Every structure is written in structure tokens, then in C-alpha cells.
Amino acid sequence: MKKTILIIAITLAFFNCKNNKQENGKLNIVTTTTMITDLVKNIGGDLVNVQGLMGSGVDPHLYKASEGDVSKLVNADIIFYNGLHLEGKLVEVFEKMESQTKTPIALAEDIDKSTLIGSDYFASNYDPHVWFNIAYFKQFASKVAAVLSEKDPKNSVYYFENEKQYLAKLDTLQNTIKSIIETLPKEKRILVTAHDAFNYFGKSYGFEVVGLQGLSTATEAGVQDVQKLAAFIINKNVKAIFVESSVPKRTIEALQAAVNSKGHNVEIGGTLYSDALGNAGTVEGTYIGMFEYNVNTIVNALK
226 or 13: whose pLDDT is higher? Predict the structure, then answer.
């Protein structure tokens, strides 16, 4: 019933939609995840109005569009989302919008699929957590700059200059991350988290990544999953495991209790930002700040 109402709302909103641009001439842009919101703000700067549907701590796997979201979407000049079925419950909304001549832009769709990590959890057949490979996020930045320039050609120089500056910051981030990780012995690079959001990070920096819930938070970890992972932690002598900001911490606490009950001590090494950034206005509320915070938290806890 809710889906039917939502689809009707989308259709009506399109008929009622007039001029999308604000009176101040800025492009109206709607984004899904906090990572994409931060990116678009960096590239668009003062020439765009950006509205992010998802805030800090929000799980994109489970997010459902409200009627208020639909209003934002249909009045947007541009819509950016991750794709690869990360925002699984928004797919129907985006498909309906495409049939109404508005095409939301999935930033991950341009990535060479042969380089992606496979997954049976998602309809795309790929792990969608691609922002944890900085090289992929650079592709996102270039795509955003190109789309903004196409939509607003008179300001293309501004957008491409912002892209250039942001890519330079991402270069610096890559060098910083590499230096921090090099202080952690390779045999200690085992990352245990609530769900498998960090596979691209692991592939990039030589970590073995194990998630209790698999790739999607829509799946629940059972008792056998907890016991199996507890045995793995003991066997590998893992020092710390990690909570995620967008996933309830009870599963990791249950894992810790299972390990400790077998006479092996494992600490909760901290909270990592996986599917969402930290609070707006904080260092962790930016993509670059989040990434560096995560790496420092991981390395300090596992040393």
C-alpha cells in the first residue's frame, strides 16, 4: 500500500513540478548518502543547493523514501546516488522517475565492472561500498564535475577547478593513509566489523576483512555466525573488533562476549564510519576526515 501511495505521489509531483531552479539561479541537487553529499558540495561549491536525503548514522541499505523525499527528488535539477543497489529500497523510486523523463545519476555505474568485488547479496552482483577505494571516489568527483558543467556550462571552469583542488586533496589523503597503515605489521591487518563494508579498503591496503552480517545490513547474523567468527578471532589472535556508526552495536557486543567466554580477550577498538559519515560540522562529517579517522582508529586498536 505504501509503495502504491509513493508511486502516485511521484507521478503527481511531476505534473505539479514547475521550474526546478531556485530564484537565485543555483542548481538544485539531491543526493542520497552522506559521502556523495559531501562530494557534491566540494565540487559544486557556492553555485549549488545540495539536499542530502540521508544523514549521519543512516543505513542506506534499509532507507525508504518518504513523501517529503519525493518532493525533493522531483524538484531537483540533478540527482546523484551511489548505485550498485546500495540504496536498494530507492531503486523503484528512481526507476519511476526515469519513466517520467528525469534520470537520476548512479555514480558507481561508470566504474569498470571487471575491477569490482563480486557479491550475491545485491541485485547488481557487486559489492556497492566502492567509496572505500579512493581511486573510485576520484572517478565520482570527475563524474560530478562533468555533469554539473553540462547542466550549467557557463560555470564549467569553476566546477572543473573545484574538481582539480579536490582531487589534489584526495591524493594527499592516499599518501597519508598509506603512511599510517605502514606502521601496522602485515600479520595484524585483520579487520572484523559488523558487516562487510570494508572489502575495497581491505583490497587496497592489504587487510583481511571479515564482517559479521555479510555485505548488507538487511541480513541478520545468527548464533552460528557469531560462534564461527569467534573461533576465527581466537585462531588469528585478533586484538580488537569494531562497531559501525550505522549498524546497531549489539551484534559486535555479542561477538565480543562469545570470544571472551572462551578465555580469549578481544576489545572493541572503536566505532568506524562505514555507510555514513559523522555528524555535520565535525572532521568525521567529511569524506576525507572520515577516512583518516577510520584508519587511525583501526591501526591504533590493532597495534
Answer: 226
